[in-house]
Amino acid sequence: MEYQNKQPPEGINTSKQHPFKEFSTLLIAALALVFIATLVLGVGGGWLAGKLPISAENKIAALYDITQHTDTAEHPKLAKYLQSLADKISKAQNLPPDMHITAHYMNSPTVNAFATLGGNLFIYRGLLERLPNENTLVTLLGHEIAHVKYRHPIKSLGRGVLVGIAMSTGSANAQILGDAGLLTVLKFSRDMEKQADKEAMQTLQTLYGHIDGGAKLFKIFHEMRDSMDADEPAELFSTHPLDQDRIDSFTQTAKQKGWSETGNLTPLPDFFEKAFE
Amino acid sequence: MEQLIATLVFVTLGFFFGRRAEKKHYTSLIEREEKLNALPVIASRIPPYDAPYEQSLVSGSVVIANDYFKAFVAGLRNLFGGKVRSYETLLDRARREAVLRMKVQAKKQGADYVFNVKFETSNISGQYSKKLPIVEVHAYGTALKKIA
Q: What domains are defined for chain B?
C-alpha cells in the first residue's frame, strides 16, 4: 500500500473571516481616529494661536511681501479712501493699539473680500462695484475688521498648521505655513462669521446711528449666487451662515437693541465708480 | 480628489481580482497537495539509516505579488495593531506553493522522502517596499532516494 500523508485541515494558518469585514471595521475606526485627531488638533491649534501676541502675528505676516500681489499702488485715490474708512472703523471697534488694519485693493472681477494675518484686508473690484453706498461698504469692512479684531485669521491658521504638522508627521517646516497660505482665503468657522456680523452691525450703529444698508451686503451675495445659478450649500456643510439668516439677523438685532433699521444712507464719493473704469 | 478616486479604483480592483486569484489558487493548491501527498516531506534533520540513500538538494520557490486591497487593509492595520489577516492568506499560499514545487522536483528524481525541509521568506520589492510588497517564499530540503 502506498504511503498517504493526511491533508491538514484548512483555516488554521489563515482566517476564514471575509476580508471585507476587516476592511470596513478598520476603515471606520481609522476615519473616526482622523476625525477626532483633526478636531482635537484643530481646536487646540486655534486656541494656542489665539494666545500669540499680535506682534508675533505681524511678524508672520511680514514674511510675505503682500504688496506685490495687490493693485493698491495703481489706484491711490480709491486705496486712500478704503484705508481711511478702515481706520475709522478700527477706531469704532476699539482695536488694540498694536493691531493695524491695512486695506489692499485687488483689481479683479472676483466678488470677494477677506481678512488675513497681520490685519491685512483684501477687497476685490468685483465686490466694490456692486456696493450701492458707504453704509454697505462699512458693513463689509466692519465685518472683515472684526475678523482681525477677534484674531480669526491666526486662529484658523493655527488650526491648519497643527493639523498639517500632524498629517505630515515630522516635516514641520515653513512649507506648512506656506501651504496653509497667507494669501489664500482662510476658512473661518460659522461662529466666527456670526461674531464678525455682529461686530459689523455694532460698527454701523456707532458710526451712523442706524444699521440701514447693512443687510444689503448679504442681499448682494445672495443675488450673485442666484445669477450664477449656484445653490447655497446646506447650512450643515457651510462655514458661512445662510444669506437669508444673516439678512434676518439684522432685523432681529435691531429689534433687540432698539436700533433703527432705516436712516440716511451716505453715498459713495464721486471718484468711486470712476475708479473702476 | 483624483488620488482618492484612483485609490478607490485600485482597492476595488484589488479586492475582486485578488480574491478571485486567491480562490483559484487555493482550489489548485488543495488539488495538487492531494496528488502529491504520498511523498513525505519531513522537517527532521536526522535521515533514516535503514538503507543507503542517494541525496540531493531540492527546492521550490514562488514569488507572489500583493494587491492594493491587501496593502490598504494592512496599512490601516498598522494604525491599530493586531493580526494582519489579509497577509496571512498571501503567505500561506506562498508557502504551500513553494512546498508543492519542491515536491514536484523531488518526485521527478524518484525520491522517497524529502528531509530537513526549511523555508526562507524574503521581500523582493526593493525600494518600493512601502508601496506593494512582493514576497518570495523558498522551500528547500534534502531529497532521499533509496539505492536499490
A: 2-146 (3.30.110.70)
